[in-house]
Write a structure and sequence with these properties.
Length: 314
């Protein structure tokens, strides 16, 4: 009985001694595991961060390239998009799948619209999902794409029933297509738009506030450089891809420059030279505003009162 009791006591003591030892053992194993996991986790997190950074850096040029391809296709086929946002989201998501298909990366474009604060930018929202071992990361991002140096499909779409428009690096040369187009709309004095010109690419006018255009050198420079301006009435870039010259979004507008006329003081009443007026179903007229006179020629644009005021009462 005593022996047994003693034996029991020894056993219990051994057991009591063993418990702390095993706790230490478990702690060491756990520490090892967690050290490994932390190391692996941080390696993967670093890789994921590098990958995310790369994707974000490439995003702007990928989207811009798709915009260029889309616009060129619209101009060549003279066919507008039915829904530019939907079309671009699909095109870009298809492209993203091709680029990242083998890398456990899913890039999804979720929204494309004209930046309501800057009509020379397109706002693109997208998510990046990356999976690496047990780590999953999801990130939402916004990218702003400049529409500068993209071409405007509206002149090509509006005059598509006539001969294809000629252009060089900067300028569309209408020859007789625009005159025919305006004559078809039964408008007055269409002959001034014979050999008219307008921008081929979108370039933002640097002369802000726009009332500076009152200065003849500034308006002359603006017309020579074929600049575009912010506009409440002119269509935004995404709506232009759908063949619309007006839209409810914050948009852009440019001048379509009539040919020069022989110097005289007569007033010309003709369709206003603003692109979204010329290409709208309901065009309205304006008066000639002369900005240069040389070699017995008068250089002018036609503006209505509201637009004349916008550009500084030219
Ligand atoms: Zn300007
Ligand atoms: Zn729009």
């Amino acid at each position: 009985m005593k022996k047994n009791q003693k034996g029991y006591i020894i056993n219990a003591t051994t057991l009591l001694l063993l418990i702390p030892l095993s706790i230490i053992g478990i702690t060491i194993i756990n520490q090892n595991n967690s050290i490994n996991e932390t190391t692996v986790h941080s390696i993967h997190s670093k890789t994921i961060n590098y990958q995310t950074k790369d994707i974000k850096q490439n995003m702007n040029s990928e989207i811009k390239e798709t915009l260029i391809q889309t616009t060129n296709k619209i101009i060549t086929t003279k066919t507008p998009l039915k829904n530019s946002t939907e079309y671009l989201i699909n095109e870009l998501n298809r492209k993203m799948k091709e680029i990242y298909k083998t890398k456990n990366i899913i890039v999804t474009i979720t929204d494309i619209k004209t930046n309501p604060d800057d009509s020379f930018q397109i706002k693109v929202q997208y998510t990046i999902k990356i999976e690496k071992e047990r780590i999953k990361q999801e990130e939402e991002n916004t990218e702003y794409i400049d529409i500068e140096k993209l071409s405007d499909p509206i002149p090509h779409l509006e005059t598509k029933q006539y001969e294809t428009l000629k252009h060089d690096q900067n300028t569309i040369k209408y020859e007789n297509q625009l005159q025919k187009y305006l004559k078809n709309k039964k408008l007055n004095n269409t002959e001034i738009y014979q050999n008219a010109t307008s921008p081929y690419y979108i370039t933002k006018c640097p002369y802000t506030p726009y009332t500076q255009h009152k200065n003849k050198n500034i308006i002359k420079n603006c017309l020579q450089n074929k600049y575009y301006h912010e506009s409440k009435d002119g269509a935004c870039y995404l709506c232009r891809l759908e063949g619309k010259s007006n839209c409810p979004h914050y948009g852009i507008e440019t001048f379509i420059q009539p040919n020069s006329i022989e110097l005289n003081n007569t007033t010309i009443n003709a369709t206003c030279s603003i692109d979204h007026v010329i290409f709208n179903e309901n065009s309205y007229p304006g008066e000639n505003k002369t900005y240069a006179e040389y070699n017995n020629s008068s250089y002018y644009i036609i503006l209505d009162n509201a637009h004349s005021k916008k550009y500084g009462t030219i």
